[in-house]
Amino acid sequence: MxxxxxxxxxxxxxxxxxxxxxxxxxxxxxxxxxxxxxIQSKESTLSKDKIYxxxxxxxxxxxxxxxxxSIYYESKEEGVINFKAQTKKLIxxxxxxxxxxxxxxxxxxYDCKVLCKAGKSxxxxxxxxxxxxxxxxxxxxxxxxxxxxxxxxxxAKKQTIEQWPLIKEQAFEEFKSIIQDFLQSxxxxxxxxxx
Length: 195
Prior knowledge:
Elements: H1 2-15, E1 17-18, E2 21-27, E3 33-40, H2 48-63, E4 69-75, E5 80-86, E6 91-96, E7 99-104, E8 107-117, E9 120-131, H3 157-192
Antiparallel strand pairs: 1-2, 2-3, 3-9, 4-5, 5-8, 6-7, 8-9
Helix pairs in contact: 2-3
């Protein structure tokens, strides 16, 4: 069951294509999941600086003055932006005797590195770890790539087996949306040069 869940998640991640966005998954040296995407601009002549500016604008637009994201390294010369962020609050559906209740499922903290070159950028989302949640069993530190949250207790194991993939899916949808924002910002920068 564990291998099937990992296989299905990996296929969903590597097969997501929307416009020119493809998201791939790999494992780092600590066996943690890493998501990456290369965004090609339509015009390969779009400069590294323009791509850098458009991605930086997308980060500001998406996160604003939010406490949920902070840039910790940036270099226009190198074409690099590194920031730490966290997903929005995720929903954990708790089954009770009287029905289902939406509960705070915590969030994922992650690092995002954006590398900019003329005509393209690469987004790398790494160190994706779960934190928080409404239940005591939700100990922080489980990796996004875990088929079962490695740091959670085994209380309500059946429910956790059902909910963990759904929590990860919510986070993955947010990652897709962030990458799509970067793409749209780059494409709008290209249109500035048109009549």
